[in-house]
């Protein structure tokens, strides 16, 4: 179970970095400083959106979590595809889809929920 969770966290972080790369690409049209600001802003916005809408502990309906995950993770796949990295986009898309679907099955989700609960002193 922990391997699945660790793999999903790595995939999520890779998606955040890919979207930061998109921010760099957009901002760098106006110079390197703007590229760095674009990358940092994109990363901050993606992490904020993930924390408030897609995280396991987010206080939103499950449907909102699914849409947020689809937009963020799908956006990373689309960014790779748009930059011409088709094999990487396909690989990331397949791995992400399998991990998300496996981690959302009832037995895995229940185990992960137990692991995510804070310990009482």
Automatic annotation (TrEMBL):
<feature type="transmembrane region" description="Helical">
    <location>
        <begin position="66"/>
        <end position="82"/>
    </location>
</feature>
<dbReference type="InterPro" id="IPR021214">
    <property type="entry name" value="DUF2568"/>
</dbReference>
<keyword id="KW-1133">Transmembrane helix</keyword>
<dbReference type="Pfam" id="PF10823">
    <property type="entry name" value="DUF2568"/>
</dbReference>
<feature type="transmembrane region" description="Helical">
    <location>
        <begin position="5"/>
        <end position="24"/>
    </location>
</feature>
<keyword id="KW-0812">Transmembrane</keyword>
<protein>
    <submittedName>
        <fullName>Uncharacterized protein</fullName>
    </submittedName>
</protein>
<feature type="transmembrane region" description="Helical">
    <location>
        <begin position="88"/>
        <end position="105"/>
    </location>
</feature>
<feature type="transmembrane region" description="Helical">
    <location>
        <begin position="36"/>
        <end position="54"/>
    </location>
</feature>
<keyword id="KW-0472">Membrane</keyword>
């Amino acid at each position: 179970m922990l391997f699945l969770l660790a793999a999903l966290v790595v995939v999520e972080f890779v998606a955040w970095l890919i979207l930061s790369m998109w921010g760099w690409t957009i901002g760098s049209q106006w110079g390197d400083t703007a590229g760095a600001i674009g990358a940092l802003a994109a990363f901050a916005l993606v992490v904020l959106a993930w924390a408030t809408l897609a995280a396991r502990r987010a206080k939103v309906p499950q449907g909102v979590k699914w849409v947020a995950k689809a937009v963020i993770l799908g956006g990373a796949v689309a960014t790779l595809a748009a930059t011409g990295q088709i094999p990487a986009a396909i690989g990331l898309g397949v791995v992400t889809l399998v991990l998300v679907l496996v981690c959302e099955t009832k037995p895995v989700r229940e185990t992960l929920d137990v692991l995510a609960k804070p310990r009482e002193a």
